[in-house]
Every structure is written in structure tokens, then in C-alpha cells.
Amino acid sequence: MNLYLKVHRDQKGRIVAACDIGLIGKILQDNKAYMDLDKHRDFFMGEEVDEKRLEEELDEFASVNLVGEHSVGVALRIKLVGKKDVMYINSIPYIQIYRI
Q1: Buried b (16+ CB within 10 A) or exposed e, 47-86
Q2: SS3 74
Q3: 16, 57 Cβ separation under 8 angstroms
Q4: Measured in Å, how far apart are the chain's first and last C-alpha atoms?
Q5: How far apart are CA 91 and CA 20, in angstroms?
Q6: Average pLDDT for residues 47-70, to the nearest whole number?
Q7: Cβ-contact 53, 4 below 8 angstroms
Q8: Which helix (H) or strand (E) covers residue 20, if one does?
Q9: Fold assignment, 3-98
Q10: Among residues 61, 58, 87, which one has the least CA distance to residue 75?
């Protein structure tokens, strides 16, 4: 188990949120971006799962928020996104995907 997975539901559909376990509680910041993984821990902290389970959850969604090498790596491996789509804060990868 190397990441947290939480699936939210709203009127637009499923929101899949995943974050590498070691990043929860940290604040990521550089001169271009800021992400508070302590303040927003409840958004990501659901079940502790492996990468295979995240891959299964990425079959259907309205939006996706992934933070960390393991989480983002799943999206890259299944070609949900390309390397050029990945953003970084102090070398920590993250992506946000919205289906409209």
C-alpha cells in the first residue's frame, strides 16, 4: 500500500483523488505553486491502496486529482496523461484532469 485513494461524488460525477502516503501532512511550495496537503488531507485520505486499485478507479470519472510519483505514475502508465501534462512543485509531480 503506497497511496491514499478517496472517491468523492457530486452532481457532475466521480471525483478521484489520490496522494502518495508520504506526502500527506506536507505543504508543497515553490515560486509558482502552492499545495497544502495538511489542510486538505481529508480530500485525499480515504483507503490505503496499491497502484492497481487506483488504475481500476480511473476507468470512469468527472475529475481526477493525483499527487506524488506513485499516483501520477499510474496515470502515465495507463496513458491517461502524457509526461508534458504533469506539473511539479519542488519536483513533486501532480495532475488535475477534468472531463467536460
Answers
A1: eebebebbeebbeebbbbbbbbbbbbbbbbeeebbeeeee
A2: helix
A3: yes
A4: 31
A5: 14
A6: 96
A7: no
A8: strand 13-20
A9: 3.30.1860
A10: 58
